[in-house]
Design goal:
The chain has an eight-stranded parallel β-barrel with strand order 1-2-3-4-5-6-7-8, surrounded by six helices. With 312 residues, it is α/β, with parallel strands linked by helices. It contains eleven helices and eight strands. Helix 2 (46-66) packs parallel to helix 11 and helix 5 crosses helix 6. The protein is globular. The longest helix has 22 residues, at 91-112.
């Protein structure tokens, strides 16, 4: 039975951290081959499971030492049908992988959670297409149908919630929120933006959040921004409208490069951890409900530690 599904502790004012850039850490620091950026594929053998466990334990330790909560985002960003089929998974083996990912998160929580550091388990989803390019859009109905399989699997586990990272157009967010509602799963929706602060689809963050809320009766428990540097979106947060209050989380990139530049890069740009931490401190002053803090591409434990130091 889920521990926090009906009472998510991050909806209060306590600070929570997440991990950093899982896939970029595995590729550039661990020097692992990661076809399709699919970290869930490591769950197929004990060596891969041990690698993932060590990765999450490092961040769980940071959270516990700081007395902060921790969101255990399962390594399942690519564990949906279209991506998994390219790696040879069918519906049965894919569902098994998603369940195994939640099982690993439960193990980490059992070892590291304390009363001062509650640890929430999140079944993580990713976009059906390229997270950086909004070239093939689904309708709301199509998105609801596509993502329901993975969400249904998570709903049958002890996951406390689901989340989706790196969405680049609104209809997919709506479909995911509705599929989560169909399964009574709390859901956090995270959009990515380009260097101008707009979604790759050209929509504003305000439009994305407001339209998703309108279409789903405000079902998402909160929204996030990920896979962009704070300098890409700080300027769009000056709007004093209520949509900003819906943003509880930021998982920023280490690099100030655009998505196109990151796609073409063969070397890791890990930026400046201390400078990134200072940006989070500024974001906390702009966004009244920002309390879920972590990293995305290029970030690792150094960046998360710097973020914790800056906001503590």
């Amino acid at each position: 039975m889920s521990k926090y599904r009906n009472n998510l502790p991050q909806l209060r004012d306590k600070l929570f951290v997440t991990d950093g850039g899982l896939e970029t850490t595995l590729v550039f620091h661990e020097e692992l081959a990661l076809p399709l950026f699919a970290a869930f594929d490591l769950l197929k053998d004990e060596q891969g499971i041990d690698t993932l466990r060590s990765y999450y334990e490092r961040y769980a330790t940071i959270a516990r030492q700081r007395g902060m909560g921790f969101i255990l985002e399962a390594p399942t960003w690519r564990a949906s049908r279209d991506w998994a089929e390219q790696l040879g998974y069918d519906a049965v083996t894919l569902a098994d992988a998603n369940r195994k990912a939640i099982g690993l998160m439960l193990e980490v929580r059992e070892t590291y959670e304390t009363s001062a550091s509650p640890m929430v388990i999140s079944g993580n989803l990713g976009p059906r297409g390229d997270g950086y390019v909004a070239d093939t859009k689904m309708s709301v109905t199509q998105a609801r149908d596509y993502h329901k399989q993975q969400i249904e699997t998570f709903a049958q586990t002890d996951a406390d919630m689901v989340s989706v990272l790196t969405l680049n157009y609104i209809e997919e967010a709506m479909g995911i929120a509705l599929a989560a509602r169909d399964n009574n799963m709390p859901v956090a929706i995270s959009f990515t933006v380009e260097t101008d602060g707009l979604l790759p689809s050209g929509d504003t963050l305000a439009e994305a959040i407001q339209k998703t809320d309108e279409a789903t009766d405000a079902y998402p428990v909160y929204y996030m921004i990920n896979c962009a540097h704070p300098t890409h979106f700080e300027h769009v947060l000056n709007d004093a409208s209520g949509w900003r209050e819906r943003i509880h989380g930021v998982r920023a990139n280490a690099s100030k490069r655009s998505h196109a530049e990151l796609d073409e890069s063969t070397e890791l740009d890990d930026g400046n951890p201390r400078e990134l931490g200072n940006h989070y401190q500024q974001l906390r002053q702009i966004l009244p409900n920002l309390n879920v803090l972590g990293g995305c591409c290029g970030t690792d434990h150094r960046h998360v530690e710097a973020i914790c130091s800056a906001v503590a």
